[in-house]
Amino acid sequence: MTDNQHNYISKASLASPYFPTWCPGCGNFGVWTAFKNALSELQIPEEQVVIVYGVGCSGNMADFNRVYGFHALHGRAIPNAVAIKLANHRLKVVVVAGDGDTYGEGLNHFISAMRGNHDITLLVHDNQVYGLTTGQTAPTTEKGTKTKSTPFGAPEIQINPIGLALTCDATYIARGFAGDIRHLTSLIKQAILHEGFSLVDMFQPCFTFNKHNTYHYFKERVYNLQEQGFTADNKVAAWEKTYEHDKLPIGLFYQDPHSVAFHKTLSQLDEKMLIEHSIETIAMEKAVSAFR
Amino acid sequence: MQMINSNPQSINWKVAGRAGEGIDVTGIMFGKLCMRHGMNVFAYREYPSLIRGGHNTHQVHASFDPKTSQQKHIDLLIALNEEGISLHKNELNEHSVVFCEAKQDGYDIAKYQDTGATFYDIPMTNMSREETGHFLAQNVVSLGASAWLMGLDIEILKAVIHDAFHDKGETIIEANHRAMQRGYDYAKEHCKPIKETFAKKENNQILLTGNHAVAMGAISAGVQYFSAYPMTPTSEILSSLAAQQVNYNLVVKHAEDEISAINQAIGASYAGARAMTASATGGYALMVEATSLAGVMETPLVICVGQRPGPATGLPTWTCQSDLQFIINAGHGEVPRVVLTPGSVQEHFELTRLAFYLAEKYQLVVFVLSDKYGLESYETMPRPADEYHNQRYGLIEEALPSDDSYRRFVVTEEGYSPRSIPGQAHGLSVTNSYEHDEFGYATEDAQMTKTMNEKRHRKIKGVATEVPQPILIGPAEADITLVGWGSTRLVLEEVVRQASTVGKSVNCIHIPCAWPFPVESFTKLARTAKKLIMVEGNLNGQMESVIKQETDMKFADHIRRYDGRPFYAEEILETL
Ligand SMILES: Cc1ncc(C[n+]2csc(CCOP(=O)(O)OP(=O)(O)O)c2C)c(N)n1
Questions:
Q1: What is the pLDDT of residues B97-138, one digit of tens each?
Q2: Among B20, B458, B516, B524, fewest CB within 10 Å belongs to which?
Q3: Residues of A in contact with B429 (CB under 8 A)
Q4: Which CATH architecture has domain A19-261?
Q5: pTM to 2 decimals?
Q6: Looking at the partner chain, which of B207, B250, B293 has a beta carbon nearest the beta carbon of A73?
Q7: How many CA atoms does the CB half-sphere of B475 hold within 13 Å?
């Protein structure tokens, strides 16, 4: 039997033959659940989603989802995703990557994708440590923290991902917590629906290698911005929120209602998706005339 | 009227001056003037980046006979400043003519009289001012004067100038035509022509660089996504294709770095677009990890690499062939690839076109490996066909099984497998940088690892039957057989032609594909050679090593150059 009928994404359709290899209690389970909820609730045909994964414990999710998956190189998922979207802008393109992957190895790509307002969703598993390589310092590790690669304490000030996204004019900027699946689900859903670049940085406790930023640590500190009446339409107000450290705000920091996605600025993509254009017959005159 | 004696059959003309004086524009117009007479044209450009004032040259070698490289001795030198003479003294002799503006530039031509050349101090800048109100058309004045001296048709030059300025409006065109006429009339009154009037022949050629030809070849093959980061000598591919976005269904992205450029190209290709990236080898060095990614993902990818002298930043605007071994071996793990090595501009077009076909059919990385000399020199080639037709390969047209049994990486005899693309129902799979099973899921299974490596490498067997084979240029038998690859072809062809005029028996073998190395056809051509000499632009004899490794051929001798300069046919001929 063959058919062109599509199936909509559901929890069942997402099931791959493999079950996660993550440590028991890993924050990635919470993220995974919220992500699957979001995809299922959005009612998208299963072939219209591409997930591009970084390399890390987070990226190992590639084997646990049955989708069009692209398991990239460490740090390089964003450029892959940007071009997948431009080649076929009907697709929903989501990047799943670690904080080391995104804010360390691939930082240049992160900044460029935001500046371009490419219509991709970036989910960052922010566990403030390198998981897969077993516990070195990450760009998000608090200064002074002892890790395998910084036995005398991490020497750099930790990066401020939300603040960085604000200065790069990202058009959807949110933070979630793997321990609040309902809330995270709704943030991911909004992010995917947002036309333009969306970042969801996600506090993701790593039981094994980060004994400091635990579930308990976050449970005591996080509070929901929107429940406090914060409206995400003011960059300066959002900026101030990124400097709260005693309490940790989660929710939507900023969304630009006038966002124009990168692919919408390309007239070549007005009528059709790039890959819909036939290359069967190419007329050469316009490419040749200047050389005569 | 007495003619100054130089080879009446060919033109060797050079314009030299400061960057910003329109050296290239002038050279291109002169080249087109020759081409539109029906001649073949080769133009070599130098822009030594470290010399004061940014000294630029554009040198046109034209003739009704084939011309594929520059020549040392110049018939007519247009020196737009004093360095235009002082840096090129050795290229002048008693047959040479120099147009200069010594009085206005404040130097004495007397000090260059020992070259034997004839000097004309022409007030080109003043003429330009009088005719156009601006000094900038001095180069057009020089073109008018060149046309008289070289026996070329002023009406053709008029048309060339018209076309060059057509988007600037009638006023500008007319002003330039006046400047041209002024130079022509001046030369007619004061200078002796150095050539008989050239005939005109029909021809249907175009004049362009290797870079232009790579861009055009990509367009003919239906390129849809091109991402790159600028670096000499391949930046012109980026700018050419960027400009074509208004004419073709093509997205061109100047990426934030080379790593992004190649990863974007891989992403676009994965999504079903025909994709390409390009860089100098230094920029390509940043793409090595992703080359391996494309290999394991079996994603079609075309990479144009332009060699320039290294190590590191090296000599940015000069040429060499020192990255062959690097490109043949680039990418960790064992990555199947094809390395095409075009020589002529036409080959740059054809092999880029071929690269897209091979990459898509065999789902692998195909390099188009060239260098500064091949990519930035101008050469005439026959005008390409009005239309090109492309088939798609490996993409699944029919509906896929609804039981989701489709396997993207199914093990096949030919090594490649039918490819679903995102958006296609029931084609879901993982495209994985990790070793994977037939569905694409990561695996560490020993047998599967072995099977997948072997599967990918079986592609080489098939692709080897479709890559371009070495060609013999010149007489079937000769005392000396020169062997070259890539842009060295251009010079070797010239050597073979010149050899026949001085009674030397020389032919050459050009290798247009370095990997997979065409063992059989090379051996067949080389076996009967009396004396094999390898000519290449590197210190260690990189192609010579490949040939030794792949065949049992031995070379009698070799000629190597690694000073950033191209080979000169005259110099090679002297050493034989
Ligand atoms: C180019 C490259 N450098 C280094 C690595 C090794 N490596 C794999 S994952 C990783 C970091 C993982 O940290 P993060 O991105 O935060 O993801 P996590 O495992 O915590 O989810 C590193 C350094 C690699 N695979 N590739």
A1: 999 999 999 999 999 999 999 999 999 999 999 999 999 999
A2: B20
A3: 68-69
A4: 3-Layer(aba) Sandwich (3.40)
A5: 0.97
A6: B293
A7: 17
